[in-house]
Design brief:
The protein is mainly alpha-helical. It has one domain. It is built from 5 helices and no strands. The chain has helices spanning about 35-45, 50-55, 60-95, 100-130, 140-145. Helix 1 runs parallel beside helix 3, helix 1 (about 35-45) runs antiparallel to helix 4 (about 100-130) and helix 2 (about 50-55) packs antiparallel against helix 3. The chain starts with about 35 loop residues before the first helix and ends with a helix. The model is unreliable at about 10-20 (pLDDT under 50).
Length: about 150
């Protein structure tokens, strides 16, 4: 029997898929020793408290400082909106005759705004972890200038 000689071709390497990057430079150093995207996510986790902690201890990374300051400002906006809604509907709710209607509307407004703030808060954390800088209107501009 005659052996067939097969010429082996070198394996062709197919171009691999590009690695998904988080958008934050892997070499970016933080004062905390954490990855920048993780530190940015944690800055949102407990609202203004975690935002303030990361804003004060982070001196090297502007990305983390931005998210920390945006977290602080977002928390302040949350408290202001709920204080205003609560005050307005408490005053209107004490009116004779239409008080029950206004008290009910106040509860409805609070629920809608609460869900809205919760959704935005989750989105901020997800985008921060992905390495994206999502600027909220007004708040984001202030955070970016002061980060």
């Amino acid at each position: 029997m005659e052996e067939e000689k097969h010429e082996s071709k070198p394996e062709e390497k197919t171009p691999s898929e590009p690695e998904k990057t988080s958008g934050v430079k892997a070499e970016a150093e933080t004062s905390t020793g954490l990855e920048p995207n993780l530190a940015a996510l944690l800055a949102y986790l407990f609202g203004w408290i975690s935002g303030l902690i990361f804003y004060l201890i982070e001196t090297k990374n502007k990305y983390v400082r931005f998210h920390a300051l945006q977290s602080i400002l977002f928390s302040i906006a949350y408290f202001v909106v709920f204080f205003v809604i609560g005050t307005i509907f408490s005053v209107l709710g004490s009116m004779p005759g239409a008080g029950l209607l206004f008290a009910s509307l106040g509860g409805l407004f609070s629920m809608v705004f609460g869900i809205g703030f919760f959704v935005v808060w989750i989105m901020l954390m997800v985008k921060a972890y992905k390495g994206e800088k999502w600027l909220l209107p007004i708040i984001g501009d202030i955070a970016e200038k002061n980060a």
